[in-house]
Here is the input.
Amino acid sequence: MSGGGNTAYGRKPFQRSKAHFTDRITADGRDGWPVEAGRYRLVVSRACPWASRAVISRRLLGLEDALSMAIADPIQDDRSWRFTLDPGDRDPVLGIRFLSEAYDRREMDYPGGVSVPAIVDVPSGALVTNDYQRITLDLATEWTALHRAGAPDLYPEALRDEIDAVTADVYEDVNNGVYRAGFAHTQEEYDGACARLFRRLELLAQRLAGQRYLVGDTITEADIRFFTTLVRFDPVYHGHFKCNRWKLTENRVLWAYVRDLYQTPGFGDTVDFDHIKRHYYQVHSGINPTGIVPLGPDLAGWLTPHHREELGGRPFGDGTPPGPVPQAEEVPARGRP
Here is the structure.
């Protein structure tokens, strides 16, 4: 998710920008960035669904000690993502006030905005990658030497073609679809995006009616990518982005599915509803010029029984749940149900 001129949203056609920095951090270091404990810092916003994928993956895989994490303020200024949640308004590891400083150390006057997730090389302070589509796949497949004991296989080789096919549809119609609807500048554009979004949600609900997870019988990359949009659906996309044919709570299958994931260690314990709501409603001034953040929806339902375990499935496959959230990374009470 990029920061910057948000007053333009809703006034010009929406187009998701591609990641400009696509270097990969790999086991063999073929791009010049070898996997190494303590060398890199993951910069995220808890408000951003694209960054939240990486937060969840990192936690499920137990990479907290190997890959440190910086959490940006959900409210940006004209210089984009900033570290005003930290003492002195500086990231304590990188020593910078704005994520753009790490981008500038990599390349001055680069095209595109400053986006999260981003991985920064701590020794040089330079950005390595902002490739949101690739980062989680590499965490699952290239960082295996640093995974915790019992880490799940989030991208099992035998299921990759099916995972890729499902996530391609989820990306086009759901992950990106809510933005195309929310930032539409014509009725026709909005109508088309909304129709595709809800058609895809209904197809995915049919798929999930008889199986606990999207692909196979364990949690995979596909579930992570779907979850980060679903968890934001009623709090922001239904109202703020006008994706309001129905609420998620009104769809029996999807509401149970997303609660199942939310209540699984590694998912809900990374979600900050306060950051999510304040970011969307206060930053997107082209859509919500008053900046008023709604009080609802009531979050109590997220902790109610979902009964999805009746479908079987093994959340972590042959592995185990992650341990407790590191104290420094706990979501504050105001962001939880």
